Amino acid sequence: MPESSSGLDDKQRARLAARIDAKRDDLIALTQDLIRIPTVNPPGDAYQPCCEYLGRRLARSGFAVEYLRAEGALGDSDRYPRTNIIARKEGRGPGPCVHFNSHIDVVEPGHGWTMDPFSGELRDGRIYGRGACDMKGGLAASIIAIEAILEEGIEFSGAIEISGTVDEESGGYAGVAWLAERGRFSPPRVDHVIIPEPLNKDCVCLGHRGVWWAEIIVSGRIAHGSMPFLGVSAIRGMAAFLAKVETELYPRLAQRRTAMPVIPDGARQSTLNFNGLHGGLPNPAPGEGFPSALVADRCSLVLDRRYLIEESEAEIRQEILDLLEAVQAERPEFDYTLRDLWSMPPTMTDADSPVVTALSREIEHFLGTPAHHVASPGTYDQKHIVRIGNLKDCVAYGPGLLELAHQPDEYVGVEDMLDAAKIMAAAALRLLARAP
């Protein structure tokens, strides 16, 4: 698809940037307002009020607003409705559609904060709060970017969409996945998608590693703790498996490196994390006595395997099975079950695709440095847009530092949001200028 022009001349780009700078206070207030709506997931609090807040604002700019509840989807209930918002602004005639997608849910604040996590406090050019970085700052920047285009009166063909979707932090199945299943992220309705996740303002995120979660359950035989030789300890069996992982699998994983530009550097190798390990009966609370004298007849382990685009899910699953079978060969009473929990393959947008090219050129223009192409260590909603929507021209680009996500005292820098807004606005116009 040839590009007819960049969509902007130098004077328009300068006026657009000045318009965004003039909206600094508005950007701060919008980000603070979004942080102060505690859209914590789980359970899925305040989705409806957050979407309605966004809808009122976007309607004032002439967007057609839809509220789309994912009825029957995972997590949806009358108490916690999975409400999404899509707002669409039509241009002067036919053309491509550029869509900015942000998730509105945030994780639990947790401990360690030095301020109210839902205050949206502004301090030294940073806005603090749960979701400031991941990713309400990016959502606010994308809205300011598009409002600036409209306020400047810059004409465009095609359409611009802005969405606020739910449950990204728990897989996105009632958000982007549900919408993609209904054609909301597929051509010809949508052509280019930018997800303002926090991956640094000079980086375009092309995709992410794959993930496979599974549960291993080792079964033993119960017996009196004073005569363990009469039972079979599931904990000892699991320990034998873990020993093989430590001595055989981890060294192999450390040698595997991907051509994907994954950040941080440690994530460019295959990784395996154990999310939880539980064996035997639960321990009594302090002061409630001692546990029963029993040989543990059950031990369960949840594993989180992040794999590279050069690997396949079948291969990494077989690696675990091979270790389990090796333990069984050494310990005839070792009895295990391997249960798949969920998985998602890696995804990678071509570095010369339209959306990557548009963002990269505007990064270089506004920041004076070549754009870095990166990939995420963990998955995000690009997975559903590519896999279900069959829309390949999708990346993540937004303000904020990835390492601040889910941390205490999470923040987003105001200057970073302003820079990202300028880049998003100019890139959107560059994409909208592409000939159909």
Word description of this protein:
- The longest helix is centred in the middle third of the chain and has 22 residues, at 234-255.
- The strands form four sheets. A six-stranded mixed beta sheet has the order 1-2-6-3-7-15. It has a four-stranded antiparallel beta sheet with strand order 10-11-9-12, with helices on one face. It has a three-stranded antiparallel beta sheet with strand order 4-5-16.
- It is built from ten helices and 16 strands.
- The mean pLDDT is 96.
- Helix content is 33%, strand content 22%.
- A hairpin with a 2-residue loop joins strand 4 and strand 5.
- The termini are close together.
- It has two domains: 10-207 and 347-432, Zn peptidases (Aminopeptidase); 210-344, Alpha-Beta Plaits (2-Layer Sandwich), CATH 3.30.70.360.
- It is α/β, with parallel strands linked by helices and 436 residues long.
- Helix 1 (10-22) runs antiparallel to helix 10 (414-432) and helix 2 crosses helix 4 (132-151).
Task: Label this structure with key terms.
Alpha-Beta Plaits; Aminopeptidase; alpha/beta; 10 helices; 436 residues
Short description:
With 436 residues, the protein is α/β, with parallel strands linked by helices. It has helices at residues 10-22, 24-35, 47-60, 132-151, 176-181, 234-255, 313-330, 354-367, 382-387, 414-432; strands at residues 64-69, 83-90, 97-103, 122-123, 126-128, 159-165, 192-195, 203-208, 210-219, 271-279, 298-307, 335-344, 347-348, 372-376, 394-396, 411-413.
Q: Within the CATH hierarchy, at the fold level, what is the topology of the largest domain?
A: Aminopeptidase
> Which geometry do the CA atoms define?
elongated
The CATH superfamily of the largest domain is identified as Zn peptidases
How many strands? Answer: 16
Largest sheet composition: 6 strands, mixed
Instruction: Write down the Rg.
Output: 25 Å
Structural class: alpha/beta
Low-pLDDT stretches are none
CATH architecture of the largest domain: 3-Layer(aba) Sandwich
The strand line-up of the biggest sheet is 1-2-6-3-7-15
- The percent of residues in helical segments reads 25-40%
What share of the residues does DSSP label as strand, in percent?
15-25%
The end-to-end distance, rounded to whole angstroms, is 7 Å
Sketch the topology as an H/E string, one letter per element: HHHEEEEEHEHEEEHEEHEEHEHEEH
The total tally of domains equals: 2
For the record, the CATH class of the largest domain is Alpha Beta
Chain-averaged pLDDT: 96
Number of helices: 10
